[in-house]
Design goal:
- The protein is α+β, with helices and mostly antiparallel strands and 136 residues long.
- It contains three helices and six strands.
- The strands form two sheets. It has a three-stranded antiparallel β-sheet with strand order 1-2-3, with no helix packed on it. A three-stranded antiparallel β-sheet has the order 4-5-6.
- The relative contact order is 0.16.
Amino acid sequence: MSKNNVGNGKIVCDSCVFGFPVSAIRIQTSNLRIDNTALEATYFRCPNKDCNKVYVIQVLDNRCIKLREEFAKQKDRVQNNGRSNSTKESSAQYISMLVKRKRYLDRFKMLLDRYGEKVSRRIALAGKEEAENYEM
């Protein structure tokens, strides 16, 4: 699904050119192991029962989940520190938040680039029987 295939509240599948509303998406999460790495994949499928193409939204490993949690905690600290009068402390916390955000996003992108296609294929193969019984 490319950016060009989203418009008017509808998504168009790259594979079968089936148009469907965003509300038809059923987001799912699967835990799987690829290349001896435990992963949590979030994805949706094209709702066309003859297609069922898998679109991977995110792939996370334990390290990425931890980085996301650290970023969220630091973001909360920055937001709560807005009441503080210490500009120096606020600036240091804000910079720390940006660094943690970058680490998290870099890891997030690396995992999606490294495992996105493998995850998509694995889920598509594992869900073939389930896909055949899926009704729109």
